[in-house]
Amino acid sequence: MKNYNRRENKKFLRMMIVFLAGILIFSMNLPSIMKKDSVVVQQENVKTNINFAPQSSSQWLDPEILGDFIGGGSSIDVFVFDGIAYVAEGVNGLAMIDVTDPTSPVKLGFHDDGGTARRVYVSDGIAYVADGSDGLEIIDVTNPTSPVELGQYIGGGDARDVFVSDGIAYVADFTNGLEILNVTNSTSPVELWVGSWNAIGVSVSNGIAYVAVGGSGLQIFDVTDPTSPEELYKDNVFGFGWDLDYSNGIVYFVAEHDGLTLLDVTDPTSPVELGGTSIGTIMSIFISDGIAYAGRGQNGWAIIDVKNSTSPKILWDINDAGSAGGGFISDGILYIANGNLGLEIHDMGYDEDDDNLSDVSELLTHDTDPERLDSDGDGLSDGSEILTHGTDPNRIDSDNDNFLDGYEISSGTDPNDPLDYPDLPQEWYDLINERLEGNETLILTVYALALQNEEYLGNINDTLTGDVDALREVLDELGITVGDTDYDGLDDLQEIEHGTSIVSSDTDIDNLSDAFEIKIGTDPLDDDSDDDGYYDGYEVMLGTDPLNALEFPETEGSENKISGYKSSILFGSMGSIVIISIILIKKRN
């Protein structure tokens, strides 16, 4: 028994030492926490369903075609800007198509004066077209119904791709190689440099040009001086280059028969292979939000998750005949130049809020919020309202019987039948209709407060301030006690009244709780109520007035006070350890 007691005493002593050491470490960091110019980390406990880009394939639904446009030519590439798709249609030139309603595209205009439009790049109302034997076409498309050719550069080769940045056009020419042109004067492009050979695709970033070369693989140039580029790298180890794209230090290179290869080019003189996919020939590639969109000609499109650069993962194949060329992604919609099948428009199925409705369908069809699981806050997800229950995802009470749709589902009644409703006292109707005048937002607020619905309460609008008395009256008469979600001393209704966070006890992160700030008169929404450069909490701790800008801590005095505070903790901790040690030793003896 003595040995057991000794072990327990030693264990307790060790725990106390660690605990007191933690206090000491906290005190050593106290000044940096209190200074206005320091970095303060908020311990956030707000729950949210918002993700600004799909993080995994589980946030994607199956792609669906929205619409198409067949113009009679062979669609090879597409660029989309401000609701207009600019489609390179080979021998038919450049077509401008209105895609503001992606389910019903409308042709606006076209431009063709020979050549073979292969790629298109649009910037500031000007379309730059890699036009085969006609070189680079420069077209004013500010009026898409009546495009006007401004200028042209014919290098005598076969222009396959174009990239424009800061008034410089980089043209991948299969005959002449990389052509660099000054296009600041759109009516008279000037050749700056021509070199390399068999260039098919080009991408430029931070003064470095990456070129896909047929027969020679990948070439990399330093083009900070566009009149005299320096070749940094050339190798055909990655196959016959068809196209490439650059994003965040990685080149995504596609080759004939060899699929997709990811290359780390942080050192452009020595690319390092990271990973890839062997899915045969890929003829075009572009990257957006960690997803690679790969045109595979007769084999359609492959959608590849490349967030893990060492292990890309194919998410889907889209293959409905045609000949997939270039593509463009905008607001979750994929535009595909699909050869003789023209322009195809696909909803890619992004689902940021995991409600089983794509973001595109929420915006275009249902008018719901793609970043909120439950747009109207009635307790049912948008997807379940539309796909399962047939209720209105934008109305909390679809059948107008004064019961929320979610409450009716949980009660076993029909949310679409006003004659089928939960059995509740008559005063529920009286209070809602007479006191709140049927205001849906207030009804929802009562419901949220009653059930402690943190998701809704955390996003509640501060325009409810004027209705607090009515809300509390209704809650009181229903016998509902308002909770204090963040345990800061203000109940949730008081938080609504003051505009403070319902789920964070210190809304302005000044080391004073919201309730304490209300009590002493400081602003719980302003970390420095008197704008003197010191956090309210810092002033309260040092004894200065947080409401008087002329009274603030003196630097020397402040440091002395904090030093004294730290010294007290230090010596107190050491003294506590000594006393506890003596007690345990005496007990052991």
UniProtKB/TrEMBL annotation:
Residues 365-401 are annotated as: Disordered. SUPFAM superfamilies: YWTD domain (SSF63825). Keywords: Calcium, Membrane, Secreted, Signal, Transmembrane, Transmembrane helix. The chain crosses the membrane at residues 12-30, 568-585. Residues 365-375 have a biased composition (Basic and acidic residues). InterPro entries: Ca-binding_acidic-repeat, LVIVD, TSP3_bac. It is found in: Secreted. PANTHER family: EXPORTED CALCIUM-BINDING GLYCOPROTEIN, EXPORTED CALCIUM-BINDING GLYCOPROTEIN-RELATED. This is Uncharacterized protein.
